[in-house]
C-alpha cells in the first residue's frame, strides 16, 4: 500500500508516505523480533514439557502451568506449616524449661521453709552452714563494743 500511495503522491506535499515508510521499517523490525521470541519460547516450552515427561502435542500451556502453579502453592503452604510447627515446638520447649525452673525454685522454697521450721522447733540446732558464722560475728561485735560487759564497769 505504501508503494501505491508513493506513486500517487509524487508531487503532493503530503507527508503520509514518508511517515508511514519509517513506521513500516520500525514495525517490521519489531515484528521480526517478536516472531523470533515466539519461536524461541515455543522451543523452550516444548523442552520444558519433555523434561516433565509431558507430550507437547497433547498438553495445553494452561493445563501445564496450572499444575506447576498448584505445586508451587502447595510447596509454599508446606513451608509455612513447617515453620508454624517449628515455632510450636520451640514454644513447647521454652514452656517446659520454664516449668522446670519453677519446679526447682518451688523445691528450694519448700526446703528453706522446712529448714526454718526445723530451726524454730530446735533452737539449739542450726541448719544453715552460715548460722555458726553469724552468731560468732555477733559475739565478736558485742565484745568490741563492750555490750557483753554491761553497764557495771
From TrEMBL:
Residue span, FH2 domain: 1-101
InterPro entries cross-referenced by the UniProt entry: DAD_dom, FH2_Formin, FH2_Formin_sf, Formin_Homology
Coiled coil, from the record: 75-114
Protein name per UniProt: FH2 domain-containing protein
Keywords: Coiled coil
GO process terms (BP): positive regulation of actin filament polymerization
Domain of life according to the entry: Eukaryota
SUPFAM superfamilies: Formin homology 2 domain (FH2 domain) (SSF101447)
One Pfam family named in its UniProt record: FH2
Domain DAD: 129-153
Amino acid at each position: 500500500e505504501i508503494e501505491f500511495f508513493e506513486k500517487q503522491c509524487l508531487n503532493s506535499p503530503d507527508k503520509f508516505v514518508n511517515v508511514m515508510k519509517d513506521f513500516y521499517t520500525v514495525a517490521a523490525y519489531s515484528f521480526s523480533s517478536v516472531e523470533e521470541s515466539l519461536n524461541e519460547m515455543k522451543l523452550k516450552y516444548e523442552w520444558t514439557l519433555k523434561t516433565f515427561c509431558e507430550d507437547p502435542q497433547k498438553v495445553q500451556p494452561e493445563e501445564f502451568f496450572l499444575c506447576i502453579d498448584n505445586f508451587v502453592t502447595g510447596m509454599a503452604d508446606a513451608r509455612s506449616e513447617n515453620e508454624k510447627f517449628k515455632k510450636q515446638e520451640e514454644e513447647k520447649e521454652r514452656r517446659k524449661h520454664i516449668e522446670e525452673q519453677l519446679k526447682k525454685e518451688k523445691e528450694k522454697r519448700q526446703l528453706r521453709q522446712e529448714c526454718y521450721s526445723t530451726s524454730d522447733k530446735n533452737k539449739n540446732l542450726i541448719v544453715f552452714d552460715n548460722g555458726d558464722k553469724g552468731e560468732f560475728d555477733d559475739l565478736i561485735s558485742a565484745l568490741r563494743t563492750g555490750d557483753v560487759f554491761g553497764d557495771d564497769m
